[in-house]
Amino acid sequence: MKMHIDGKQSDASDGATFAVLNSATQEFIDTMPRATERDVQTAITAARAGKRIWAATPVHERARILMACADAVDARREELARSLSTEMGKIIREARSEIRVCAQILRGFAEKAGHHYGQTMTDYQIGAENDIIFTRREPLGVVACISPFNYPVELCTQKFAAALAAGNAVIVKPASDNPLTLMKVIGICLSRGVPGNVLQAVTGSGAVVGGVLANSAGIDAISLTGSTEVGVAIAGHAAKTLKRVFLELGGNDPYIVFDDAELELAIRDAVSGRVQNAGQTCCSPKRFLVHKPVKEAFVKGVIEQIGKLRHGDPLDDTTDFGSLISPRAAEEVQSQVEQTISQGAKLLCGGRLYDKTYYAPTVLDRVRSGMDAAGDLEIFGPVFPIIEFSTEDEAVAIANATRYGLQAGVITRDMGRAMRVASRLECGGVVVNSSGNYRHLDQPFGGYKMTGVGREGVSVTLNEMTQEKSYILKNILRPPRS
Ligand code: NAD
Fold this sequence. Notes:
The chain is an alpha/beta fold. The protein has 14 helices and 21 strands. The protein has two domains: 3-249 and 442-470, Aldehyde Dehydrogenase, Chain A, domain 1, CATH 3.40.605.10; 253-432, Aldehyde Dehydrogenase, Chain A, domain 2.
């Protein structure tokens, strides 16, 4: 496959490529160009021209085009879902859902952009009674969208659909392990009327492509979803040109089960929330804080539930559990599990890498405060670190003892306790009576602390993708001199 640069299907200027593999089987699927710095500069130059064209395109026309993109994505849902499932090991049911959500996001921003209003000031200020002041929201210019591998289509669409609806030109940098389906979606958008210098996609090394984008004065904003390490690096580069930075980063979300919880629900949603996407979800529960009186029963139930999961071919409709993205990712989970055991955890089930990219759902008991998995170690795989607590205060303290703060789940029948705990948790969202593995498209989604900067969602991203200009009609209301 080729890149999309300035309306052309492009190879890298030096001809370099990298391979994209089927995650579950490690079979070769296709190559992608490995962009050079020159290629990225070409895209930036094109985007500087594209941003003027697109900002001058009325919002009703931009919205019409984005709606057509959504319809075209929907029409090819099954083909795109199979492509996504193949290149990343995501089970086909989840892949279909991701493509459906992609179309919904396009529609959501197209609708919202038509009603994204400015403000009008009052005559509150003494001496300004005859002035009229109103504001309009104007595009930022060129927005770079750098996206991760785990929901490659959905999470990038959250960025580029919002940026386009708001009138910006966009350069997308997909994750390198699985760029193919996202590139197809971008191809669809180009074929439905988004100009070739308004939406471009450049593939290759994160450090090279992402580095040029983050450092360039030709980029006005950079929106990244990815790891906290990469987010910190990008923020450092971006600071030199004071470009806006929106960051959706790592998490180690708590799932807090109290002794009055409906235990069947607590077990079911713990497992479904953790094993979705084979455990590779930013907001999946990653630490299981369980009240002492129900801990044994909870752990037993989780192990039983895990035993019912059907592992296998991600393309098979009956499979519940697919592969991780790469052998490297599976080895990383293995080493994190070993690290946690070496710090005192007890392995109750799983703890096994198989078929190169599969990792068996793993329960680790006796995880305690101070161990890495209880704090800043984000395990991006199907692992259940179990942490026992005795009091509400203790649960809140453990939950907050991390540099991260994306979402959380609180399981209790006592709504007073649920709200009390939710209000004390340092995170961007709390789900009551399910896991924090939840994202409504409209919801302002994002994190506290080192999980990021900004919020994404149809209700909020257009604010982030625009800047507000004040128009002042000075003395316009002054009565004519007689
Ligand atoms: P990653 O940080 O390795 O990569 C993300 C993107 O950044 C990729 O496109 C990559 O090529 C690019 N990149 C890598 N190095 C770069 C650099 N130096 N400069 C610029 N770009 C660079 O993340 P990943 O492994 O793809 O995704 C997993 C991580 O993302 C996890 O930590 C997960 O929690 C997080 N995540 C967060 C959210 C959220 O909404 N908060 C959502 C999904 C994933």
